[in-house]
Design a protein that fits this description.
Belongs to the EPSP synthase family. MurA subfamily. The protein has 426 residues and is of the alpha+beta class. The chain has 14 helices and 26 strands. It has two domains: 205 residues, Enolpyruvate transferase domain (UDP-n-acetylglucosamine1-carboxyvinyl-transferase, Chain, Alpha-beta prism); 211 residues, UDP-n-acetylglucosamine1-carboxyvinyl-transferase, Chain, CATH 3.65.10. α6 links the parallel β12 and β13. α1 runs parallel beside α7, α4 runs parallel beside α6 and α10 packs parallel to α12. It is globular, with a radius of gyration of 21 Å. Bound molecules: ligand EPZ. The site of ligand EPZ has 23 residues, from α1, α5, α6 and α12.
Amino acid sequence: MDKFVIEGGKPLKGTLPVSGAKNASLPLMAAAILAPGIHTIENVPRLRDVRTMAHLLRIIGARIDFEDGPSSVPSLVIDTSDCSFCEAPYELVKTMRASIYVLGPLLARFGKVRVSLPGGCAWGPRPVDLHIMGMEKLGAQIEFEDGYIVASAEKLRGDTISFPIRSVGATGNVMMAACLAEGTTILQNAACEPEIVALAQFINAMGGHVKQAGSDQIVIEGVDQLHPAKFQNIPDRIEAGTFLSAVATTGGDVTLTNLRSDHLSVVLDGLERAGFSLEIQDTSVKIQSEGRAYPVDMKTAPYPGFPTDMQAQWIALMSLADGSCTMTDTIYTNRFTHVAELQRLGADIRVEGNTALIRGVEQLKGAPVMSTDIRASASLIIAGLAAEGRTDLSRVYHIDRGYERIEEKLRLIGADIRREDEPLQV
Ligand code: EPZ
């Protein structure tokens, strides 16, 4: 397993392009199942999770190739003409929960599917009951055998589906199933994330009729069939927020490009309230940072609220703030595995329920720490970049799932970070 070695204390300077969104890429790739033929999705990041989804689609029968698109932005060419194996095996699903996204498209196109239940993750159970509820409302018969969801339907029929809580995955999965159903489907209390809007736009590019995506009520007119399409993926708002937090925490002057500033307004607002000066354009943000952040209390919420995927990074930033503040995660109530590792670097943080109480310290000191999930790893990189001395971050396969060559990107703006083979622990 690889590790990162970080020498902290160096300000970050320069310009950095943001990659395509991981959390849009995965449902977009699954949606290609809906229309047999050759699809092109531009601006897909070369991530571990994208490779996992590509592997799953190949198991189902698709052919997939990465191509270098315009200005060497990577594109995926996906041929779903010969898809036929309607199964997502446990060995794969257990490594990536987003594999569940093939449930809706396979059910809509083939009328039968067997998908492993995903199990949990580093911070607890990750249920899929809302995905299943949505498929049942569309007329699917659902059974469970040997840890698999077995779903079948002669023809899905539109209905009104009201989600008790906002779920990005369930909204996307049911939207994909509904676009080939008979009649109209209305999703109430739907997720409003930009990744859902992108998915709806791709489905519409295939000839689908999805309206009001981005609002909490989405209307889908089912069609008989869809055709392959070409689509440009949106930028990754969480990668952008992560790099902005790194500059704010470490100090420096960096411009991020190829982003959508309207997708991360609440993060930009938080950084300004923390005292950092930003120059905000539609597709770029310049951040200048010297001195410590002001403490800013934050609470995560469904989009357009503060993203739970930025919670760990924000805690890293606030661990060096000039005062105390709180971070409350209302989406995942125990997503704080990064706190114990940040404490090893000298952070003064206490967790009570789903709230972290952060008392800012003057300095963090480098130490060996361990990744536990994608965003916890990002938080530890941010803290390591700001800490005095050397930080060794182990198990970086977690971060490779969600960030494209993060150490190379950080080196481009002056960070002293390198990837090393981690000797087998005896
Ligand atoms: C997506 O996960 C993202 N993953 C997550 O990002 C992100 O944290 C999450 O949305 C919330 O924004 C991808 O898009 C691949 P949810 P998802 O369904 O769809 C509960 C990252 O780091 N729930 O919106 O799985 C659930 O437990 C990852 O990139 C049910 O109870 O999240 C949670 O409390 C981590 N039943 C809440 O809803 C269900 O059937 C929101 O989850 C589904 C979800």
